[in-house]
Amino acid sequence: MKSAFCLQAVTKRYPAREKAPGFALGPLNLSLPGGCILGLIGENGAGKTTTLKMMLGLTRKSGGHIELLGRPAGDETTRAHIGAVLDGVCFPGEMNARQVGRMLEKLYPSWRMGAWQMWCRRFQLPEEKKIAAYSKGMQQKLMLAAAFSHDSRLLLLDEATSGLDPVARDELLDTLRDFVSDENHSVLLSSHLVEDVQKVCDYVALLHRGQLLFCEEKDRLLESFALVQGPKDVLMQLSNRRGLRENAFGATALVPRTQVPSGLIWQPAGLEDIMLYTLRGDHHERTAV
Amino acid sequence: MQIYIQNTGETPIYEQIVSQIKAQILSGALQEGDALPSMRTLAKELRISVITTKRAYEELEKQGYVRSITGKGSFVAPKNLELIREENLRQIEDAMQRIVSLAAPCGLSLEDLMHMLTFFAKGEDV
Known about the structure:
The complex is a heterodimer. By secondary structure, chain A is an alpha/beta fold. Chain A has helices spanning 48-56, 76-79, 97-107, 113-122, 136-148, 166-179, 194-200, 218-224, 232-236, 271-280; strands at 3-14, 23-33, 37-41, 63-68, 71-72, 82-85, 154-158, 186-190, 203-208, 211-217, 225-230, 243-247, 250-256, 265-268, 282-284.
């Protein structure tokens, strides 16, 4: 399989300033086979948006190499085939959908007006309404419609589902599944909504404080962990545990499924469990006083 | 062809696909030469990862139930009696293992079990 993108030793350094502490991202090594969807998850400030912006050339990287669709990032021949939806980036507020379509037609040689009109209809975006009057969800749909209308082969979506209601989110996930119908169409999706990532992604990467903690096939990841419950002292002896949560009546730990002690109750761990236990380590359940 | 996926996480998804397609081949619902859906179609319809459907098909091919022809797709392999024998043998062994572990706590002797099995094999009630 051809790779959709490849990041090699990519770094970003923000020096510490008077009020803001410094931040370092990477070195990141991350790649995605064509025809797949990768979900990038992590807390606020983990570096998800910075990673996407570096891929799009909107933020200058401090080091490393980025390849998109087999060409170095920023390459003119591939630029038209990369679609992006970023939070808060939108078109001029006084324009309406029809005008945006005409503007983008001039910007993208690969623009397909028929597709644009179809997506605007499908997303129920009124042609004449000014974008300034759009809700957040509508703005996101408008940007998605644009990304789908210029023959994109790689979609970079930053929190693209977060402004949508559950039905619209589900429709969008279906749209993404349709989009990756062959090996030439791929998606990188960053999201807080781990549930959406678990539903739609082929691969999952967890970013934490600028470092990549893992990037794995989603189904293999879900198969390999279990949440096991038992007395804290028993669970503490499981050296391969990723994290442990304790309450007044017992404890729960995230452990490899192969190492669940016999006789203890266990259940499959979801992506959210894996993320939370990995990031929070061993901790007490906070109880309301 | 019918496939039902349980997303509870207890049985890996690729295993669910493998066992259901295998069962349909063994029962004759899927015949030699029948085309299986493409991995992408199966993934899209079941809303699962294409990596997982690929893994399932590879496993079916490895076990000899399916053969893949590059550019054409995956097809049910010719019926292999040896393979069916192996599979049935494996299931019989599993069942016997269960019989033995169920018999122990209620004090049934090997002789009792043999008697019961003889009755069943002859088609009579115990």
